[in-house]
Specification:
Number of strands: 6
Oligomer: single chain
CATH class: Mainly Beta
Strand order of the largest sheet: 2-3-4-6-5
Low-confidence stretches: none
Shape: elongated
Order of helices and strands: HEHEEEEEH
CATH topology: OB fold (Dihydrolipoamide Acetyltransferase, E2P)
Structural class: alpha/beta
Length: 135
């Protein structure tokens, strides 16, 4: 084998190893039912949903600043208690959509990461400009 073939073979093997490592960390978006089914495997999943504002949020920074619980409604309409072992994210109540990474336990969804999709600050400006142009 010449040097070019050896280098190409090494690069291909390296690419496969990197792909395998990264693909194991990526988790698909699922609902709470699927998350419960994968709980036995212990794998992390991602769930997209909205905050259930009618149900209680618990965050008492004087007692335990690293415990925050709330209820989330997934895209299928199922509601589940979520526990985040971190402080409450800033502007949490204003979020339009919440993406959780974590795993199901017997009692709740244990989130390890939270990503918030907040309303666009330009949304009000767009509707204001639309009203002006129509009026």
């Amino acid at each position: 084998m010449n040097k070019t073939s050896i280098i190409a073979l090494i690069m291909a093997i390296l690419a496969l190893v990197i792909f395998y490592q990264v693909s194991g960390e990526v988790s698909p978006y699922v609902n709470f039912t699927t998350a419960g089914a994968t709980a036995e495997e212990g794998g992390k999943v991602k769930i997209v949903g909205q905050l259930v504002k009618e149900k209680p949020m618990v965050w008492e920074p004087t007692n335990d600043p690293n415990y925050f619980s709330f209820f989330l409604r997934d895209q299928e309409g199922l509601e589940q208690k979520v526990v985040l072992l971190q402080g409450k994210p800033q502007d949490f109540e204003m979020s339009e959509q919440i993406v959780l990474t974590g795993r199901m336990t017997e009692e709740h969804f244990l989130a390890s990461e939270v990503q918030l999709k907040c309303p666009s600050k330009y949304k009000d400006e767009e509707s204001f400009l639309k009203d002006i142009s129509e009026g």
